[in-house]
Each structure stands twice: as structure tokens, then as C-alpha cells.
Known about the structure:
single chain, alpha+beta, six-stranded antiparallel sheet, PPM-type phosphatase domain-containing protein, PPM-type-like_dom_sf, PPM-type_phosphatase-like_dom
Amino acid sequence: MNAYDNQVPGGGRVPEPGPEHVPSRKGDPIDLAASVYEHGWGPAPAPAPAQGEAPAEEARVVVSGPVVPEGFLPRPIGPGPSAVREPWSADGPTVAESVTAPVAGPGPVVRPPSFREPGPLTHVGRKAPTYPAEPTDIPAISGGDLFGALLPDTVVDGGRFGPVTVRAASVRGDGHRYAAECRQDTALVVRTGELLLVAVADGVGSQSHSHHGSHGIVRLLTRQVARKAETLLAFLRSGAETDFAGLMNRLVAAAAGDLAQEAERAGLPPKSYSTTLRALLVPADPAVPFRGFVSVGDGGLLRLREGGWQNLEAAEGGEDGALISTRTDCLPEAYEHARARLITDTRPGDLLVLCTDGLALPLLKEAELRTWLGERWGREAPGLAEFLWQTQVRVRSYDDDRSVVCLWEAAP
């Protein structure tokens, strides 16, 4: 299915929305309340002259609606609904020319050949997923859990920090959307001094309050990292991996302890907050090539380099880094299983992809998805809206929440 096909069951296309309440003003040459979105986007034909009345001289009048002549809109650069557009052409039509049209004739509004309607999310594979592509039912407050009901379906974030461009997104999975359940994943982008902390967390689906755990652990880890930011930065500058790992593991343990206390204060067992965690620390100084990494539980850390994907967490004995750890260690209980280390071989132009298993599993198992994302992420960083559209590419049989943070290292 083409990403820009805007079709509905039974054929045809989704009708374009029109203005619902357009006030009319005396003296207007046309009725502004009349829709110009019907019958091929064209304005309504002029009324026929009364019997015995001479036809009125054809005039050019202002027409409400998206009347855009050929060549007026700048053309998009690149695919996707948020394509960047080139500046306005210096020799293009004037504003007056762009908003006038003959009264007579129901001719369609002209749109440039580069116009693309934002269509449904694309998918890879022979068959599309059976779930609807967009959110359906909305989670309700259940058992007094206001926090879960207030979680948005989708979040997107990003910016630039030192040598990296950051894009992050967390999206409720098809399964949770269909069941009207809240998003259990989260993604974090935060700066503390000269250190950038990015993280993803995946609440364990079998635990009813795991969304509290995933959102809580990234918040509590941020507090712990902020207290030791200068020390962590010094370890990254010097490449002291053993010192970094020891301190980072202690910070994860402290955050896990805080999370367990929050669960107990809510009258719940700490296990009900079960969540995985993955985090990266990036110095603002471009001269420091080291990146700090810590993880608990499943998920993924991958790198796209010169068009090829690498699994930086390939299990021992895996073939070509094509396997991913399936251990289910979870915080706050399994804090002693935190694994921290340094990524010491970063190069300009690399892309690091930190994600929960909702994206890690299909990305590692489906070659077509690696190709699809590699073609789009292997160049410069996309805009926020386009990145969000790309991260939601659908793969049949993978319906879990999906959280991802991408770090584009500055090109040489």
C-alpha cells in the first residue's frame, strides 16, 4: 500500500473536511457560507440570469477555500507528510493572482503536481496488520488510576545537543489501542549540565501498574544522574569504563529503590511497577567520543553505520548480531542485573538507536524493516513530525508499544 493512498473500505477516497461555520457578510460577491470543497473542489457555478435579463459581465472575484494555482506552493523535499519545502519562487504568481478565479464554471481547483495527501501509516511485509492504523477507543479511568488515563497515546521530542541531533518518540501499540489500555512505554530526553541523558522504558504488560514503573524509573534515574553529572562526565572524558559502570549501576539501584518506595506508598507491591530500562549518556563536548550505556531487561541498542545495521547488544554466540537478549529482568527488583559500559568506537555520521522491544524485535528480525528505516534514517535527521510518522511503520504480528530515541552523530 502506498503511504499516501487515502482510501476507505469499499473504494473511493476520504472526503476532505470543509469549513462548518463561515459567516456571510453583506456586499460579498459570493456566498461565503457555500462550501467550495464539493464537486471536485470547485466553487459553485454562478446563478443563471433571470428571464429577460442580460448576462452579467464575467468578473474575477475572491473565492474562499484552498484555491491554489499551479506553481504557487513550494514543492516538498523528500518523502513523508512533513516534507520540508523550498522557499517561494521569486517569479511565482502574486498573492492577488493566487486567490482569484472566474465565477462561471465549476472547474476544479488546481493543485501542483507535487501535492501529496497525508495517507495512512505505511507497512512492510506482504500483509498489513489486522489492527486499525489509528487509535480507536480511549483509555478510561480504571480503579482510580488517573495517571494511566491521562497518558497521551503518542509523544515526540527532540533537539540538538553538542555533537548529536536527537529524535525521540513513544507510541501506544496496536494491541493496547484496541483494548483501550494506556501506553506502558516511555521515552526521555533531558539535559543536566554538559551531559545529555536519553532513555526508554517498557512496563511489563502482565503488571497492572507497570506504566507507573516505566515513567517513574526514567524520572528517578534523571534525579540520580543529575546529582553525579560532573563525576559521570569526568569518567566519559577519560574513558574510565570500570569507574563509569560502577557508579552508573549504583545510580540505577538507587532509582530502583526510590521506585519501590513509591509503589509501597501507593499501597502496591513493588513488583506491580515492573519495567525495563535503557539509557545513554552523551557529553556536550564534540571532542569526547565516548557514550555511556546502561540497561536492565530486554530492548535494543543498534547502530546504523554506512548503510549497515549493527546490534550492539548481540548475545554471545549470536549470528552476525542478529539476536537480542530475551531475559526479562525488571526494575525495581532486578537492579543488581544492571549492565553499564562505554561505547568507545563512535564515529562521525553514526546513528545510535535506543529502543524498547516493540521496535527492537521487528527491527532485528525483519530485513524489510531494516531496509525501510535505513533508507530514511541513513541521511540527515528528519523533522519531528516526519520522524514520528517513520517510527510508526507497521509490521504484522508486532503490536506492542514502541519507544525509540535516535542520536545522529555530526557528520565529518
